[in-house]
Specification:
heterodimer, A: 278 residues, Uridine Diphospho-n-acetylenolpyruvylglucosamine Reductase, domain 3, Enolase-like, domain 1, 5-stranded antiparallel sheet, 4-stranded antiparallel sheet, 14 strands, 26% strand, B: 794 residues, 6-stranded mixed sheet, 29 strands, 27% helix, 23% strand
């Protein structure tokens, strides 16, 4: 289990990194924490001709609060979030999600931007940041664009990133005081990839909710207008109004054909709803 | 309690180091500091690495192997290995069909991962680059991937000339027709998944040739080095004396390291061909997909009982998926044939019939894994006993108590002629039931859980034949039959003790426990006892470490050699004390007479450095003894244990949490109870893996589907509860000190206890799970099916 030969570049700043990526005439892969790419290289599941190592880029480790949102550099690690080294705008929600990602060794190196770029449907940030309504700044040598999470993940291991483009920052909206948050996942063992994720950000006073059903074989189901999951209206009694049948139909529509799998997903989402209401 | 009082006991000055002492393990100092030396740590000048081209298909004809011009000379195929014989592990049981496993595939491939070509380069990465550049022209054949379908006429054939896919069929029957009129009759199909043994350290091989000694040295992570030597010599056509096997520190064996590997043969050939040392270390993907598997059993079983729960008989057809080839030395049929002999368990069984099939498929060969067939057997039998309990309206524990062999019947010959040596099986069950508090669980069940989960309690019990010897193994007719076990004991000139044994230690702590045995005999400080093992050049021949035999066999051999050594020292000591030899005793490391004493250190100094002071009739063998040992009866020791588990099951998510776990075990006299506790913890972890996590699935093309540890799940620290252990200590009447083999037992009973607990939790929902592992998906699928079945017809 050794990787095929590859070229390696470690640019000094973001401009240099974008230049290397833009010029690359060969297949290139960006490495940050390497927690997914490392094993994939060793298993020869990917054989890029060039690896661009962005772990040295100070620009991508910056964190700041800008108005109503938190702007995270793509190379912030899960452990940075877990350990509270970034400002908390989600009333602890991100910190709790981070603390349950894989194992501590993975969290020490794995980065938020790397996890999103990898676009594994079972990854926590993919579902959690979709529910939190995060947006991403994607940058290439030609400029930057901003994409909402639900448009960024387009399929299993497929993102909206174009050639030469990298995730620069993640923008997380501050959670309103009246909002409730619930996040649940089911894993066969501690630290393993989830086989079902449910996430909900709900604000009964504003009658709004974002609901995510994740860890399916494709991009997560992101429900921005979630009233039908709660019998047509979102109010303080949402826990009791949660309609499992509607969630089940959504999963079937998304291509989850196995009834037992749908049952587990629906019940994990139900657990997230209960947590939000608790 | 020891049944051999003739041995000097280490009381007084040396107290606390002999048999029964909870000594910290000597080997842990280096292992816990990362100073162990494993095969992958070996660095030899000129060493090159090997990577293998392996079959990507389960079953195919080889039409061509294409090696790019630039790699000629670095790639070797079967055509190059002239004079190398295939691996043959033949059983003498009547009807056994022989498979020949070419060390590099010839003609066709019969499993994914089978070795096709060997690539050598200065580094493993470069060797893998070469392997990736070699292309195979394969003509795919239908894969035999389901052992039950493989038995049907018309199935594709793994070995065409057999005419079917059955390595061996066995039949055993005693009075079965007398059970047929029993009022309770329960029939089920039960199965256990195919598993990979997954030691922390995989296999690894370094081969080199020493021209001065005219000897091939093979460093291998192996648990039976002397057997490896014999098998290797047969494949290479070499004299055994020209081969030395060195097995250094071994990071877990479990049976996986008991077989002769085709890789060992290949690298041995390669180093002699190339003239430099070569290395191959198994990576985790190779371990999971290409090496060897274990455990895949299927049972079609009927249990007969009276209304009061008393067993009337068992009728069973058992099938084991043996994979493509018969492994050396255990063969492809040991597992299934053992099923027939041990299925009646620790119970009184008036009637019994068992047919077994060892079936060839296009999968990795099956190997005996910790517990061998017992884990599957215990799973099948104990799940069935819970169903008998339901039918009889009794607590599952009560059904066991009514059927277990009673202590006053010991020693007991059961229906398959297994000779249970000693023990109180019902007492172990009673203690487990009391400790797990079945009554308390029933009260809690009636109240229900606030979180919607369901609670269940499950028990299981087994007895395990261990350290079985010549009379048992000669019957199997496989390449390896254990005889007397030997050990050498040598006093060094400064009074230290060197022990040499042919068994091996791969986590068992033998450097400590065998030193404790020596201390018991000679009184030498355990710190001054050195154990030499794992090297055919330095140790007496042994079949090695397997079958929970080492403490009984090597422990007995060490004690016997030390006793003879002590006797020689005593005679020298008598001379030095100017006593009649009859008037002195060896005690606490010194020879004592009425007028004084002389230490073993002084005696050793005399033998080696002042021979002029020795008695004229001194034994010229001196202070070095090789002796052998076999228990008075070699039909094996029977350790046993009752396990009990309480679980909480979430019927909607399928998640299972183990809330409490109790083990009551009896391994006879324990040489080091702390080491035994460690063995039980490790076995429990593996048993939980079998129960809930581990499974190597295959698709219809025979492709193994769990290719990394993200797919092949092993339990971790958070999945293994701290069990509550209770020891009983019934000596074996046949062994030195009364010890019994205990190493495997922890892995036998957990799947049955946990599955019974899950079924107890879900029975009110109409759910029954008869297949391991019990995954969340299987639980939810069964819960939904039960709900569907309960829904009134439209």
């Amino acid at each position: 289990m050794k990787p095929a030969p590859f070229g390696y570049e470690r640019p000094r700043d973001l401009q240099a990194a974008l230049a290397v990526l833009g010029e690359a005439k060969t297949s290139a892969k960006i490495i940050a924490g390497g927690q997914s790419l490392g094993p994939m290289l060793n298993l020869r599941l990917v054989e890029p001709q060039l690896i661009v190592d962005i772990t040295g880029l100070a620009e991508l480790k910056q964190v700041e609060r800008r108005g109503d949102e938190l702007v995270l550099g793509a190379c912030v690690t899960h452990a940075d979030v877990e350990d509270g080294r970034i400002p908390d705008v989600t009333r602890g929600a991100m910190q709790r999600v981070a603390g349950n990602i894989a194992y501590r060794a993975v969290r020490n190196r794995g980065t938020v931007g790397g996890s999103l770029s990898h676009a594994d449907p079972a990854a926590d940030w993919v579902s959690a940041l979709s529910a939190l309504g995060a947006r991403l700044t994607l940058r290439s040598g030609a400029g930057a664009r901003m994409v909402a999470m639900e448009h960024f993940i387009v399929g299993a291991l497929e993102s909206a990133l174009r050639d030469g483009e990298i995730v620069e920052t993640i923008h997380v909206p501050a959670m309103r005081a009246s909002a409730h948050w619930g996040y649940a996942k089911s894993c066969r063992k501690t630290g393993e990839f989830a086989h079902a994720i449910g996430a909900i950000l709900i604000d009964p006073s504003a009658a709004s909710a974002r609901v995510v059903i994740g860890a399916i074989d494709s991009a997560p189901i992101v429900i921005t207008n979630a009233a039908e999951l709660f019998g047509g209206r979102i109010a303080g009694d949402y826990k009791d109004r949660f309609d499992a049948r509607v969630a089940d139909v959504m999963l079937a529509t998304a291509g989850v054909s196995n009834a037992a799998h749908r049952h587990i997903h629906v019940n994990v989402l139900k657990r997230a709803v209960r947590e939000a209401a608790a | 309690m020891r049944n051999e009082r003739e041995f000097p006991s280490a009381d007084g000055a040396g107290a606390g180091q002999g048999v029964g002492a909870r000594l910290p393990r000597k080997e842990d100092d280096r292992l816990m500091r990362g100073r162990g030396q494993f095969v992958a740590d070996i660095r030899l000048a000129g060493l090159q690495d090997v990577a293998f081209v392996r079959s990507p298909l389960a079953h195919a004809l080889i039409r061509g192997i294409h090696v790019p011009e630039r790699y000629r000379g670095c790639v070797f195929t079967a055509a190059d290995l002239t004079g190398v014989n295939p691996i043959r592990a033949v059983s003498g049981l009547p009807g056994f069909k022989i498979s020949e496993q070419p060390v590099l595939a010839t003609g066709k491939v019969r499993q994914v991962g089978e070795l096709v070509a060997m690539c050598v380069a200065p580094t493993r990465a470069e060797a893998e680059d070469i392997a990736a550049a070699v292309t195979l022209d394969l003509e795919e054949l239908p894969a035999v991937y389901d052992m039950l379908r493989a038995r049907e006429p018309g199935s594709a054939l793994v070995h065409e000339h057999w005419g079917d896919n059955v390595f061996l069929e066995t039949n055993f029957e005693v009075d079965i027709s007398r059970a047929f009129d029993a009022p309770i009759k329960v029939s089920r199909e039960i199965s256990t998944a195919r598993q990979c043994m997954s030691p922390l350290e995989g296999r690894g091989v370094v081969a080199t040739f020493d021209h001065r000694l005219d000897q091939l040295t093979l460093y291998s992570s192996a648990q039976m080095p002397h057997i490896t030597r014999s098998g290797l010599a047969e494949c290479l056509g070499m004299e055994q004396g020209r081969i030395r096997i060195v097995s250094s520190d071994v990071g877990g064996g479990f049976g996986h390291k008991g077989i002769l590997l085709p890789e060992e043969v290949c690298l041995s050939w390669l180093t002699m061909r190339r003239g430099h040392p070569v290395r191959w270390t198994e990576d985790r993907r190779e371990h999971l997909t290409a090496s060897s598997n274990c455990r895949e059993h299927h049972y079609k079983i009927t249990v007969f009982a009276d209304r009061d729960g008393r067993l009337r008989g068992i009728d069973c057809e058992a099938t084991v998926d043996s994979g493509a080839y018969s492994s050396y030395p255990f063969s492809a049929c040991l597992e299934a044939a053992q099923v027939a002999s041990i299925l009646p368990g620790p119970y009184l069984m008036p009637a019994y019939r068992c047919r077994t099939f060892s079936v060839a498929t296009n999968k990795c060969p099956i190997l005996p894994y910790r517990g061998v067939a017992r884990t599957g057997v215990c799973f099948a039998l104990e799940l069935m006993l819970d169903l008998v309990a339901v039918e009889a309206g009794l607590e599952p524990g009560e059904v066991r108590l009514r059927n277990l062999v009673q202590p006053e019947q010991m020693p007991f010959d059961n229906i398959t002629k297994k000779h249970f040596d000693s023990g109180d099986y019902p007492e172990a069950m009673r203690r487990a039931l009391a400790s797990i508090d079945v009554e308390g669980v029933r009260v809690r069940q009636r109240k229900g859980e606030a979180d919607g989960r369901r609670i269940g309690v499950g028990v299981s019990i087994y007895c395990e034949q261990a350290a079985h010897g010549t009379s048992v193994y000669s019957g199997w007719g496989i390449p390896m039959v254990p005889g007397h076990e030997q050990a050498s004991a040598r006093l060094t000139p400064d009074g230290g003790l060197e022990l040499r044994v042919g068994v091996h230690s791969h986590g068992q702590g033998m450097e400590t426990t065998l030193a404790q045995v020596a201390h018991e005999m000679l009184g030498v400080d355990v710190a001054k006892v050195r154990l030499i093992l794992g090297d055919t050049a330095m140790t007496p021949y042994s079949t090695g470490t397997w079958g929970s035999r080492s403490m009984v066999m090597a422990g007995g051999a060490v004690a016997t050699a030390c006793r003879e050594l002590g006797e020689r020292a005593r005679r020298i000591g008598a001379k030095l004390l100017q006593h009649d030899p009859a008037a002195v005793v060896l005690q606490n490391g010194e020879v004592r007479g009425v007028n004084g004493s002389v230490t073993l250190k002084e005696i050793a100094h005399t033998w080696y450095r002042r021979p002029q002071d020795l008695p004229p009739d001194v034994d010229p063998g001196g202070l070095e003894v090789t002796s052998g040992y076999k228990p008075q009866r070699d039909s094996g020791t029977f350790s046993y244990a009752a396990h009990a588990a309480v679980v909480a099951v979430d019927p909607d998510l399928g998640e299972i949490e183990i809330l409490d776990y109790v083990i009551v075990e009896d391994g006879g006299v324990l040489v080091n109870p702390m080491v035994v506790d460690g063995q039980i913890y490790g076995g429990l972890a593996q048993g939980i893996g079998t129960a809930l996590y581990e499974e190597m699935p295959f698709d219809a093309a025979g492709q193994p589907l769990a290719t990394t540890l993200a797919d092949y799940l092993l339990p971790g620290p958070t999945e293994v509860p701290a069990p509550r252990l209770d020891h009983m200590e019934t000596p074996s009447p046949y062994t030195l000190f009364g010890v019994k083999g205990i190493g495997e037992g922890g892995a036998i009973a957990p799947p049955a206890a946990i599955a019974n607990a899950v079924n107890d939790a879900l029975r009110p929902l109409g759910v029954e799970l008869m297949q391991s592992p019990i995954t969340p998906y299987r639980v939810v699928e069964a819960v939904l099916a039960a709900r569907e079945a309960e829904r009134p017809a439209a």
